[in-house]
UniProtKB/TrEMBL annotation:
Gene3D superfamilies: 3.60.21.10. The lineage of its organism: Bacteria, Pseudomonadati, Planctomycetota, Planctomycetia, Pirellulales. Coiled coil: none annotated. This is Capsule biosynthesis protein CapA. SUPFAM superfamilies: Metallo-dependent phosphatases. InterPro entries: Capsule_synth_CapA (IPR019079), CW_Biosynth-Accessory (IPR052169), Metallo-depent_PP-like (IPR029052). It comes from Aureliella helgolandensis.
């Protein structure tokens, strides 16, 4: 039987809570004001074009452990009521392998997994279930794996999501690549806010394609990075943010990656530029804005750091730019904060500077 092509959309990071820097007026607050479908209103119609929709869920969707008197229990988490909406939007697969999924503890994590699974969304990067998740679409069998390579900051010890080394990831890809027509690998890796991957990331991505992966989709930097066709596969080093409330302009412009597959290969790929508006809603853009975002991504695709030192200088510069933007946001938004939570937030900032402890 002749198969038809399958169109897959891959999105960047999805965070349906409020960040500390936007607590009270971030994503979750906009949802509370406008309804659970609010973040998706400007993109849902286009996302419906995908045969398979995948993304990275950056925070739990659970009420477990919430304490209205303790700010760290409230930020970087969404409501469980958001889960059915993810299904309605069309998500088939979500990665949970990232450094924020255990921030609110094991119960909140497990409730998120259970809710997504009940809605028919495959959870990848979850160490409590089978590593490989599969979808058959139009006669083509797809396999999905997810791994985090970032150190856990909130809950030391064994994690419920998959935390793995480069060697372990290569081994898993080799193990499963021949069992499916196409293997998609989601990686939470790299450094925040930098527009180029490290030499080690490039080498690992090439190894994964060499060992049978068709698509490597990167997350964590919160900004878009380049796209590289390599061998028989495709590497998107970072898809940036999709839904987030970061107060930094560079994190508000990214993409949805469209990849078209036949049974044997990737037929084509394209960048669908997006911009996150002042209400924290992503929207597909066109015209000059779309061309500028696409041009930037093409430029990133030709850039690389020749040495580790050069890469670290870029990381440091990017992080300093982010910190300056956050400080300006605090000054601009100071009167939007609840004074009770603002006092806690300032105390936590001082504590983190002194101890480097994440709460």
């Amino acid at each position: 039987m002749k198969t038809r092509n399958v169109k897959m959309f891959a999105t960047g990071d999805i965070m349906l809570g409020d960040m500390p820097a936007c607590y009270g007026f971030g994503v979750a607050s906009k949802i509370l004001e406008n309804g659970h479908d609010f973040p998706w209103q400007l993109v849902k119609q286009k996302l419906d074009d995908a045969d398979i929709l995948i993304g990275n869920l950056e925070a739990v969707l659970s009420e477990a452990g919430r304490n209205p008197l303790w700010l760290p229990s409230l930020y970087m988490r969404g409501s469980s009521n958001c889960i059915p909406v993810l299904n309605e939007v069309g998500f088939d697969v979500l990665s949970l392998a990232n450094n924020h999924m255990m921030q609110h503890g094991a119960i909140a994590y497990m409730e998120t997994v259970a809710g997504l699974t009940q809605c028919g969304i495959q959870c990848i990067g979850d160490s409590t279930t089978t590593a490989l998740k599969c979808i058959e679409c139009k006669g083509i069998r797809f396999g999905f794996l997810a791994f985090s390579m970032r150190p856990e900051e909130y809950k030391p010890g064994k994690q419920l999501y998959v935390l793995a080394s480069a060697e372990e990831i290569v081994s898993e890809v080799s193990k499963y690549a021949q069992t499916v027509d196409h293997l998609v690998v989601s990686l939470h890796w790299g450094d925040e806010f930098v527009s180029t991957p490290s030499i080690q990331q490039i080498e690992l991505a090439h190894k994964l394609i060499d060992h049978g992966a068709s698509l490597v989709a990167g997350h964590h930097p919160h900004v878009a990075q380049g796209i590289e066709p390599y061998g028989n596969g495709l590497i998107a080093f970072s898809l940036g943010n999709f839904i987030f409330d970061m107060p930094f302009q560079r994190t508000k412009e990214s993409m949805v990656l469209e990849v078209v597959f036949d049974k044997e290969s990737i037929v084509s790929h394209s960048v669908l530029p997006i911009q996150i508006n002042d209400q924290h809603q992503p929207e597909f853009v066109d015209g000059e804005t779309a061309e500028r975002i696409s041009r930037d991504i093409r430029q990133y695709s030709t850039q690389s750091c020749e040495t580790h030192q050069q890469y670290q200088l870029q990381v440091q510069s990017a992080f300093e730019a982010y910190r300056r933007s956050v400080k300006k946001n605090y000054a601009r938004s100071i009167f939007q904060f609840n004074p009770f939570y603002l006092a806690q937030l300032l105390a936590l900032i001082v504590l983190r500077r002194i101890t480097n402890i994440h709460i």
